[in-house]
């Protein structure tokens, strides 16, 4: 872990902004796209870069914005990694979001988010909050291989259930689904059943498969050699050097996914899920408008 003073914290424009408080990750997921060379990491991925001035930057940015909107975090680096326990920067940023009347859209794999459930509930009460959780693999043993340094899927579902009890809407990222590993009907069906049970609003699934780029691919294949001997050669013979690696079962699994979501009123088009994540309560936008008139 090392500390830097960042020049800025928010990206995006208009009605939705994103922020990453950390760069790198300690969760160790074998498929992590953020390892890709295109993101130009100049330090080892596990040597977490901490934007120590993130709260100050965020406060300055939100203080200057008249139009309230959703602030997202977690798209590149999980905001609830191990270091958050000691540093608490995510919580400080959420406190600022609450203070200035903005909304929060948080994506994580970690149950550490429960430490901030009181704050997330207050944000949702005052404006809007959406919690997103990545689910890929229901089998505990397999989950420990694919996502070794983070809580298992069953615990993440418990987190979703706790959010539902507090009235905080939730969205699940059902991705990636790894060819020849977790791309089974049994795995997808049980995750969908749990999503139905805990009342998620939407499930984001671009396709049943995986993407690999330079940097990410090498790390993933090394993990295959350690845990699934011979599988790397199957990948190479099936996909070559492709960026998109759809599961051979993708067609049937996507039909199951869409059918199940539609039957239970769960958003399943990624465009609809993103629109839901970015929506901000109209009444607060109207209040801002009248403030400007004054």
Task: Give a brief rundown of this model.
By secondary structure, this protein is of the alpha/beta class. The chain is 42% helix and 15% strand. Strands 2-3-6-7-8-9-10 form a 7-stranded mixed β-sheet, sandwiched between helices. Strands 1-5-4 form a 3-stranded mixed β-sheet, with no helix packed on it. Strands 11-12 form a two-stranded antiparallel ribbon.
Layout: helices, strands, pairs:
Layout: E1 2-4, E2 10-13, E3 16-19, E4 22-23, E5 49-51, H1 54-63, E6 70-73, H2 84-87, H3 89-99, E7 103-108, H4 117-126, E8 129-134, H5 140-146, H6 153-165, E9 170-173, H7 185-197, E10 202-204, E11 209-211, H8 216-227, H9 231-239, E12 244-246, H10 250-263, H11 270-278, H12 282-293
Parallel strand pairs: 1-5, 3-6, 6-7, 7-8, 8-9, 9-10
Antiparallel strand pairs: 2-3, 4-5, 11-12
Helix pairs in contact: 1-3, 3-4, 7-10
Low-confidence stretches: 285-294
The ordered H/E elements are EEEEEHEHHEHEHHEHEEHHEHHH
Number of strands: 12
What's the Cα radius of gyration? 19 Å
Strand content: 15-25%
The residue fraction in helices comes out at 40-55%
> How widely separated are the two ends?
47 Å
Number of helices: 12
- The residue-averaged pLDDT reads 94
Please state the overall shape, judged from the principal axes of the Cα atoms. Answer: globular
Q: How are the strands of the biggest sheet laid out side by side?
A: 2-3-6-7-8-9-10
What structural class do you assign from the helix and strand content?
alpha/beta
Characterize the biggest β-sheet.
7 strands, mixed
């Amino acid at each position: 872990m090392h500390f830097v003073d960042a020049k800025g914290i928010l990206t995006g424009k208009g009605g939705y902004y994103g922020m990453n408080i950390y760069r790198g990750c300690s969760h160790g997921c074998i498929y992590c796209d953020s390892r890709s060379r295109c993101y130009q990491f100049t330090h080892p991925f596990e040597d977490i870069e901490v934007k120590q001035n993130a709260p100050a930057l965020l406060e300055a940015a939100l203080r200057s914005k008249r139009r309230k909107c959703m602030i997202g975090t977690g798209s590149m680096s999980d905001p609830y990694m191990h270091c958050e326990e000691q540093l608490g920067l995510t919580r400080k940023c959420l406190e600022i979001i609450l203070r200035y009347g903005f909304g929060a859209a948080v994506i994580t794999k970690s149950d550490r988010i429960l430490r901030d459930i009181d704050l997330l509930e207050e944000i949702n009460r005052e404006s809007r909050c959406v919690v997103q959780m990545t689910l890929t693999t229901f089998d505990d043993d397999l989950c420990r291989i694919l996502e070794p340094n983070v809580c298992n899927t069953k615990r993440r579902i418990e987190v979703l259930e706790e959010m539902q009890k507090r009235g905080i809407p939730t969205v699940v990222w059902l991705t990636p689904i790894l060819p020849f590993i977790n791309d089974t009907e049994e795995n997808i069906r049980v995750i969908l059943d749990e999503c139905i049970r805990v009342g998620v609003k939407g499930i984001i699934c671009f396709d049943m498969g995986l993407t690999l780029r330079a940097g990410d691919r090498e790390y993933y294949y090394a993990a295959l050699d350690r845990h699934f001997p011979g599988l790397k050669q199957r990948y190479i013979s099936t996909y070559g050097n492709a960026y998109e690696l759809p599961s051979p079962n993708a067609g049937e699994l996507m039909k199951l996914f869409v059918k199940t979501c539609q039957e239970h009123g769960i958003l399943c088009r990624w465009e609809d899920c993103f629109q839901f994540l970015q929506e901000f309560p109209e009444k607060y936008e109207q209040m801002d408008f009248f403030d400007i008139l004054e």
